[in-house]
# Entry
Amino acid sequence: MKTSVPSITLNDGHTIPQLGFGVFKVEPTETKRIVSDALRVGYRHLDTAAIYGNEQGVGDAIATSGIDRGELYVTTKLWNARQGDALDAFDESLEKLGLDYVDLYLIHWPAPANGRFVDAWKSLEKIRESGRARSIGVSNFEEAHLQRLLAETEVVPAVNQIELHPAHQQQKVTEFARRKGIAIEAWGPLGQGKYPLFEETVVAVAAEAHDKTPAQVVIRWHLQTGNIVFPKSNSRERMAENFDVLDFALSDSEVAAISGLERSGRMGGHPNDVN
Ligand code: NAD
# Structure
């Protein structure tokens, strides 16, 4: 069985490692150490955001890692309050990261009440054109928000990063995005520790059958259903656990049973309400 991280080809021809490491709620002062640990474990895809306040720590870890820039995949995101000056906000992120390009730049939330996400997207199109973001995408976009971008702008987003785990699969927006060639990134892939996914019988039974942990089974479910994921953990042991998912596969019936956990509950805010 292939034991390297699979990659997905995005609609712009660039590839993205399907398994990465996310740094939401990683303290700025701890970020360099934690991301350095993640890189030592083997992660090469990092997901941060301006609002996390830890881009500099991510950049410091990259700078001291000795890993070629070309082997890394780095995503950051434009915060809502900066949708009106996305070009400056992007420059600030790049500077904090200490990089001359990012692999993926996302609009973090549509914040539709502010009425600026279409203009922000046009700025991201310019950033992509300049080569300083290889790919551009969105996050927390509902079908209506995607429809507006498709109707009013040139570039189809490469990804939509949305809250998604087995109990909240977001079928409607996911199916729409995939039809339009937009890849799905799943945030909160483990239920953020808020939803008791690991206690679900079908997860526990599959874990037992494969001699893996429930978290590994849930990450495998994401990979096999085509989602891009970057689970977060501050602990090196769990980082390693979450990365050790490449030497087994769930059966079709296990995947189907886990997909049956849909409960349609959101952990985060509704995309129409987060400003
Ligand atoms: P997650 O589902 O990855 O959950 C992280 C939590 O799960 C950890 O804090 C820990 O408590 C627990 N955990 C991790 N590994 C475990 C293991 N092996 N066993 C038991 N428990 C374990 O949630 P997340 O961090 O919110 O999401 C992942 C990433 O997605 C973030 O770090 C961030 O990069 C991104 N994200 C994006 C948005 C957005 O609006 N675009 C929002 C939230 C998160």
Summary: Residues 7-194+223-244 form a domain with the TIM Barrel fold (CATH 3.20.20.100). The chain is about 40% helix and 15% strand. The pocket of nicotinamide-adenine-dinucleotide is lined by residues 22-24, 47, 108, 139-140, 161, 187-193, 215, 230-233, 238, 241-242 (CB under 6 Å).
